[in-house]
Amino acid sequence: MKEKATGKFSGDLFLLVSQLVFLVCGYGIQVIITRFLSPEDYGSWGVLTSVLVWFELTIISGFPKGVTKFIAEAEEDRQDEIHFRSYFVQFAVGIALGGLFFLISNPLSAFWSDPELGLLFQISALDIPIYGLYFENMAVLNGKHRFRSMFILQAVYSISKLGLIVVFVAGGFGLVGAAWGNVAASAVAFLFSQILVGLPAVPKQKQFAIRKLITFCIPSTVFVILFALVQRLDFLFLKTLTKNPKVLGYYWAAQLLAQVPYYLIEGTSKKMFSELSEYHGQMNREAANRSFLESLHMTFLLIVLIVSVTLGSARDLILLLFPQEYGEASIILMILILANSFIAFMYLFSQVLFAFSREKTAMVTASIMIVGAGGLCWLLITWKGAVGAAGAALLTFLIGSTVLYLMIRSSFSIRYSFVPIARIASAGLFTTLMGLFLQVEGFFGILAKLVFITLFHVGYLYLLREPIIRSISADILHKFKIGVSR
C-alpha cells in the first residue's frame, strides 16, 4: 500500500532527511571515537569498516534491489509472494556470507599483520545476516513507495548505532566494544523493521518464480561487490603499501568526510530506482525519462552544494570534527571530495541501467574499472603516497561516471539542459572562492563560516531563480504563515 504523497518532492525529501540523519549519526560516531582511539587504532577501525561494508553491500544490494524492482513492477496481490520468497533466500545468503567472513577473519588479519583484526572480523560476521534482513524489509518498503516508513526506520537504525557504539567505546571497551555496538544496532533496526513490515505472509498463489529474482540479483550483486571494492581500493592499497600507520588513520578520516555526496545520492536514488522500475514495467518511457531528469537535477544541486562548501573549507572542516593532528589530511580531503562527487553520479547512472534490466552492462563496466583502478592505485601510491591514492580515486570515478552517462544518453535518448548546469555551477564556483577567501579560527569561527557559505550558496541560487530552491522556500514560508496564524 502506497503512502499518501505530500508534495512533488515529498519522497525525495523523506529519503534525503533520512540520509542526513544517517550521516549525522555516522559522522558523530567517527568524531567521538577519535577522542578515545589513537590514529593507529582508528586506522584499524577503518580497515574493519572497509571489509565489513564490502560483505554487507553484497547482501543489501543484491536481493533487496531485486525485491524493490519486482514489487514496484507487480500488482498489489502479487507483492506478498515476492516478499515471502525473497525473505528466506536473503536469510540463507546472509548466513552463508557471515560464515565466510568468520572463516577468513584470521587469514585476513595475518595478511595485514594485525592480530586484533581477527577478533573484530569474527564479531562483525554476526552483523551480516541481521543487517541483511533489516535491509530486505527496507527494500519492501521502497518497492511499495512507503518513503515515510523508510525515513523512520533509517532514523531508528542510525540513532541506535550512534548510541550503542559510543557507549561501548567510551566505556573502555575500545574497538571490540565498537564491533559489538554495531551488531546490536543492526538487531534493533531489524526488530523494528519487522514491526513496520510484518512477517512475510504465506502467499495464496505461486506465480512468481524465485529464479527470476536470482537471475536479476546475480549480476546486481556482482556489480555491488565490484563497486564497493573499487570505492575502497585506494584505502586498502594504502594499507598494504604504507609504512606509516598514522597516515592510514588520517586518510580514513578524510575519506569518510568526502563520502557525504555519495551517501546522500545513494539514499535519494532509491526513489528514482523504484519509480523507474514501475515505469519500466508499464513500458512508460516518457515518465521514466522525466523521473530520471528530475533526479539528476536534484543530484547535481546537492553535489555542487556539498562540494563547494567543503572544498573551500577542507582544513576547517577537519579541525572542526577531528583532533588537531588530523589537519594533515586537508589536501587529501580536497581531492577525495571531488572523487566522491563522481562516485555519486556513477552510482545514480548505474541505477538507471538496473531499473531498465541492463544489469550486465553495469557489471562489465565495474569489472573493467577494478583493473584500471588497481593499476592507478599501485602507480600513484608508490609515487605520491596518500595523495597518490586520492588522485587514483579521482581519475577512476571521473572516467567511470563519464562512460556510464554516455551509455545512458545514447541508449535512452536522455538529454539534460545546459542552462541549469551553468546556473548551479556558477553558484558552486562563487561559494568555493568564498570559502577559500574567508579565514577563521576557533570552533565557533569555523562553524559560523560553514553556515555562512552554505546560506550564501542557497541565496545565490534563489536569486538565480533555481526552481527547487524557490519551491522549497515557498513551502517553508507557507507553513510558517500557517503556524503564525494559529
Brief account:
This protein is 86% helix and 0% strand.
Summarize the structure in words.
- This protein has 486 residues and is mostly helical.
- Helix content is 86%, strand content 0%.
- The chain is built from 17 helices and no strands.
- It starts with 9 loop residues before the first helix and ends with a helix.
- Residues 4-9 have low confidence and may be disordered.
Total E-strand runs: 0
Choose one word for the global shape.
globular
Q: Please trace the helix and strand order, writing H or E for each element.
A: HHHHHHHHHHHHHHHHH
Q: Let me know the average pLDDT.
A: 81
* Helix/strand/pairing category: mainly alpha
Main β-sheet, in a few words? none
- What separation lies between the terminal Cα atoms? 33 Å
Low-confidence stretches: 4-9
Radius of gyration: 22 Å
Number of helices, where a helix is a run of at least 4 consecutive DSSP H or I residues: 17
The percent range for helix content is over 70%
Q: How much beta, percentage-wise? A: under 5%
Q: Key features?
A:
single chain, 486 residues, mainly alpha, 17 helices, globular
